[in-house]
Structures are given as C-alpha cells and as structure tokens.
Recover the amino acids of this structure.
C-alpha cells in the first residue's frame, strides 16, 4: 500500500475517478503490455477514463483501457486496442484489495498511468461511489477555496 503520487513522468490521469468516487487506499501496479502498446504510450495514445479493475482467479485485470495502435505497427499483426491487461501486484496486496472489495463493498479504479524506471506503472485506488449530493458538496468546497484564494490575494 503506497500513498505516493504519480511520478513526474505521467502518461495519463483519470480525472473522472476523483469526481465519481471517494478514493481511499492507493496501490502501484505493474502492467503487462505488448511492444506496440509501449510505443503507443510513449506517444500518449491512451484513453482510460472508463476503465476499471476486476479480480479474477486471485489476479487483477484492467478492463476498458483503450490504447490506440500507431500506424507503424507491423502489417501482419492485428492489434487489439481494448484487450484485457493483467496488473502485477504482490500477493498480500491482492488479498487486501480482494478483501476490501468483498467486505467493504468498494470498487477498484485506475487513477493514473506513469513511467517509473523505464516501466509503465498503473496507480489503482479502492473507491467508494459518490452520490449526487456528495458531488455537489465537493464542487461547492472547491469553488469556496478558489474564491478564498482570490480574496486573500487581493
């Protein structure tokens, strides 16, 4: 369980996750990728706003992540941009995530994709869904803090 923020080498952020969920515990997971996917990530050809993490047979998988293939991908290989990708986590982290999902009725969402030591890492978070009044309260607090900074600046 790491509370580190995504590194300076950020590929993509899932801003929708902060709006839709209360984010609790965060984990850093490796990602099993193919060569053409890594090249596409270097070009920032990714959309993972609607992606989610599911546990299956004691392993974690990333669903709904769309990595657009580059035009230079070989002609004899047909890439699948929305294939299911495996997340690499330690066994005790998988156990904690699975326990939280089943007992506390939380969901697991990806929040960021970034480079770390030449490898692609995915930050995932355990999240509790927000209701409409929670979203309004968050927006109201954000507006008030923005207004407060404007007042103090002048």
């Amino acid at each position: 369980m790491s509370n580190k923020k995504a590194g300076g080498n950020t590929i993509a952020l899932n801003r929708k996750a902060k709006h839709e969920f209360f984010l609790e515990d965060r984990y850093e997971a490796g990602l099993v990728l193919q060569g053409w996917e890594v090249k596409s990530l270097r070009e920032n050809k990714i959309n993972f706003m609607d992606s989610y993490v599911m546990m299956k047979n004691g392993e974690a998988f990333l669903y709904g992540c769309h990595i657009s293939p580059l035009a230079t991908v070989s002609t004899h290989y047909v890439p699948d941009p929305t294939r299911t990708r495996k997340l690499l986590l330690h066994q005790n982290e998988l156990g904690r995530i699975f326990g939280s999902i089943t007992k506390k009725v939380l969901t697991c969402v990806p929040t960021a994709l970034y480079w770390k030591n030449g490898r692609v890492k995915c930050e995932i978070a355990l999240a509790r869904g927000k209701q409409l009044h929670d979203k309004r309260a968050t927006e109201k607090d954000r507006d008030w803090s923005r207004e407060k900074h404007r007042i103090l600046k002048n």
User: Anything to note?
Assistant: The chain has four helices and nine strands. The mean pLDDT is 85. The radius of gyration is 18 Å.
